[in-house]
Structure formats: C-alpha cells, structure tokens
Design goal:
With 153 residues, the chain is an all-alpha fold. The chain contains 8 helices and no strands. The radius of gyration is 16 Å and the shape is globular.
Length: 153
C-alpha cells in the first residue's frame, strides 16, 4: 500500500497527471478514500512554490539554451491560450476557475505559469491555485468514488 501512496503522490506532482490521475490511481489501488484525497491534494499543492521558484530564479538561465527556450515558449503560449482571457479579465477568479476544471491542460502547472505571465501577485495566485486545486480534487474524488461504488454494486 505504501508503494501505491507514493505512486499516487508522484502522479499528483507530475505535469502529466496531477491529482486528476493521482486520486483515481490511489482509490483504484485500495488506498483509503480520505488518505488518497489528502496525500494527492498536498502533493499537487507543492507544485506551486516549486514552479514559482523555478520561474523566478532558474528559468532565465535555461532560456539561453535553444531547445529549452523553444519548449518554454510553447508551454507559455499554451498557458496563455488556455487561461489568458480569463486571467486577464477576471484575475483571481479567472485563475481559480481555470485551475479548478479537471481536464487535461488545466491545473496548477498551467495556472502558475499563467499567473506568472500575467503578473498576478504571488499570494493571490497561490490562494487561487490552492482553492482551484482543492475544488478540482473534490470533483475528481467524488467522481472516482461514485464510479467505484457503481462498479461494486
């Protein structure tokens, strides 16, 4: 079970799944529902400060490399395209809703990048990301539990 918890945490910090994959993985592998939610939410939440540190301190050094710069521009354009209009127009609330929607391409990675690109205050961006991640986790958690209970009946 510890391996399943660690794997679900890794999915939750991964840009390829976040808690949208971590929570179902944990629950489908018989991790306690509440433990799965708490561990995956916490792991997903840790992405914001790491990404902020990276964007503010390390990103500028990596931009010297052509491959990284090309990739960073691609990711920035995707974040702007996905969240740009809402974050520019609604600020905090636009970012919160963008991060909350549990579909691919939305989440804390894109939300942090969008907040950084549009110059949202760090505290405000953190709170919007935190609430958005929490609500996204609740949605995924409830849908996963319903699907498990529907399968077992």
């Amino acid at each position: 079970m510890l391996n399943d918890i660690i794997t679900s945490m890794l999915w939750s910090i991964s840009p390829f799944g976040e808690a949208k994959v971590g929570i179902p993985y944990a629950i489908y592998n018989n991790v306690n529902y509440y433990l799965a939610f708490t561990v995956c939410f916490g792991a997903n939440l840790m992405v914001f400060p790491v990404m902020q540190f990276f964007l503010n301190n390390i990103n500028k050094y990596f931009l010297k490399w052509r491959f990284y710069k090309k990739s960073a521009i691609y990711v920035a354009r995707r974040a702007k395209l996905g969240a740009g209009k809402n974050v520019q127009k609604y600020g905090f609330w636009g970012l919160l809703v963008f991060v909350m929607v549990p579909i691919p391409g939305t989440g804390v990675y894109a939300g942090t990048i969008a907040a950084w690109l549009f110059g949202l205050e760090k505290k405000q961006a953190f709170v919007a990301n935190t609430i958005g991640i929490f609500l996204s986790c609740v949605i995924v958690w409830v849908v996963t539990i319903i699907s498990i209970n529907g399968i077992n009946q």
